Amino acid sequence: MRRRLTVAMVVMVLVTLVLSGVVSLFLAQRTALNQTRRELVQEATALAAEVQQESSTQRNPALALRRLLAALKPAMRLDGAVVVVVGAAGRLYGVAPVAPDPVLPSGLTTRDLRPLELYGMHPVSGRSGGFAAAVVYAAVPYRADIQVLGESRQEVQAVVLTRKPPSALATAGPWFALSALVILAASGVVARRLGQQFTAPVLAAQEVAGRIAAGDLDARVPDTAGTDPELAALGSSVNSMAEGLARAKAAERHFLQSVSHDLRTPLTSIRGFAEAIEDGATGDVVAAAGVIASEARRLERLVGDLLALATLEARRFTLQPEPVDLVAAVARGAAGFEPAATELGLTLVAEPGPPAFALADPDRLAQVVANLIENALRYAGSGVHVGAAAGPGGVSLWVSDDGPGISAADLPKVFDRLYGARRQPDGARPGRPIGSGLGLTIVSELVGAMGGSVRAESPLSEAGGTRMVVVLPAALPRQT
Prior knowledge:
Blueprint: H1 2-53, H2 61-72, E1 80-86, E2 92-94, H3 110-113, H4 115-119, E3 124-128, E4 131-137, E5 143-148, E6 151-163, H5 168-213, H6 229-279, H7 285-313, E7 322-325, H8 326-343, E8 347-350, E9 357-360, H9 362-379, E10 383-391, E11 394-401, H10 419-422, H11 424-427, H12 439-449, E12 453-457, E13 466-472
Parallel strand pairs: 8-10
Antiparallel strand pairs: 1-2, 1-6, 3-4, 4-6, 5-6, 7-9, 10-11, 11-13, 12-13
Helix pairs in contact: 1-2, 1-5, 5-6, 6-7, 7-12, 8-9, 9-12
């Protein structure tokens, strides 16, 4: 990766240099052409003016100018130097007794000279084929009567000069090549250092990720001073992932230990009483069978809750939300647990109130209410209160008990797996039914799936007490 990054940066610098060099050479060549063209205009104008001043002593000023140009051509570094005669119709003629067609410098055509402008005493200049050209009429109009194909016409003489400008590549090319080599070398060094700076944290994160994948959850990406914020964030993310995996693994291990304990306890009772019945060691077979049945139901509840939790976490269940009156749902749930509360010597009160409709799945909502009431009966001192009401944030239902309450340290954990089973020996009242410890976790999953939230409030007073509050989205009553 480091090598690819270095090569990519050097290639990018090289392409930039080539493009900037091509553009610079193009602009420099155009500038040289324009400068040469201006110089040629000045030189041609000066020559024409000088010859025109001596035209009174010359029989053929155009021929004299041509001879002068031939003599000065090497000294003036001219590539082409001719004298032409321009007719009124825009035709060009050479300077000769018979006025033949002109021989123009290489790269020029009659159209480049624009004869009609020359005949009107306007200088012409331009660029053609990499040459700068200047065509200038005599400074003082000089018209000569010459015979052209037997006709007598007045003509205007013009000086045509061409010169190839100095090559920008020849002058600046070596220096550009030297500077390009220096820049490429410097860019290679910088690219290598930047590549090392960029790739080192990535490689470190890759190595740590590989160790984490191999099972080493204690591996961490070292904190390197001066690292870019994005790369530092990558290392922090890998470390956070490792910490999360470590916590998840510890929670899974604790969960398996708790499940194993909860499975082993009823299995031990079932096996013990079954062996006692088999060996005839118990005199009350009916009571032993009752214990076996009770422990079997406990196992069935635990297995059922485990399967339900797995289904909820995998989201392999369907919801059919509809407007549901939470006040009525809470009242039905409380009525279903009244016999159990009476048997435990507890009061179970459903607080009345006006209808409060929420958007929820009726069956899942009944499961939520049942789990909350069952949890409250396990820890209540004398009674449990349930109720529901509409509020500004949605529709709420609550289940409160007057039990010992939950400590501040344990409050954030009440919806964790098997939390209830872990606190069972200290929190639950003697003789109360023992749950699977997954009831509140199932409540949290179901409420979240229905778009709501659940929280625990404890203690409610100095004596303790706990309230579980579920908030669901409000809904309009179903039209009948």
